[in-house]
Predict the 3D structure of the following.
Amino acid sequence: MNGWIVALVLILNFILQFTVFQYIAVMGVKPDTALAIVVALGTFMGKERGALIGATAGMLQDTIFGAPVGITTLSYMLTGYIVGENSDKVFKEHLVVPLIFTAGATLIKYVIVIFFNYALGIQTPILTYIRHFLPIEMLYNCVVSMVLYRFLFALFSRKSHKDRLKMKRKRK
């Protein structure tokens, strides 16, 4: 997949996540569509590109919204790397893949955020995060991830198919 297409997907997601998706919160929790995109693209592109996409998406969020720079970047980068590392071991066509990877990615994100908030002395109601926000966001992210995964899978498969056709034509 072309780097420009990935950049366009990330920028479009960033705009939608912080405008339209603000209004579809469930019990105060918004879907983390950037995380779902990192999971999907990490699955399709492997560990190095998954980590790069995760770092880019996280840095975009960290710098624009004034969060301690690096926390979201680190969690998304690790997610992209871990998902990409394990992507060769799964059937990418099945919808179970984004469910499992997104659930794990949401958990990783919460562990990293809670750890760094604690390390930086930021008051974090850990039990509230674990009891209230984590289960709701995990479920919400999984549902959103299935939709985004299907869209990106179709986009990625079509692009890969066109590339294979071009390679066959060049060989002839």
Notes: Residues 3-14+26-156 form a domain with the Arp2/3 complex 21 kDa subunit ARPC3 fold (CATH 1.10.1760). Residues 126-171 form the longest helix (46 residues).
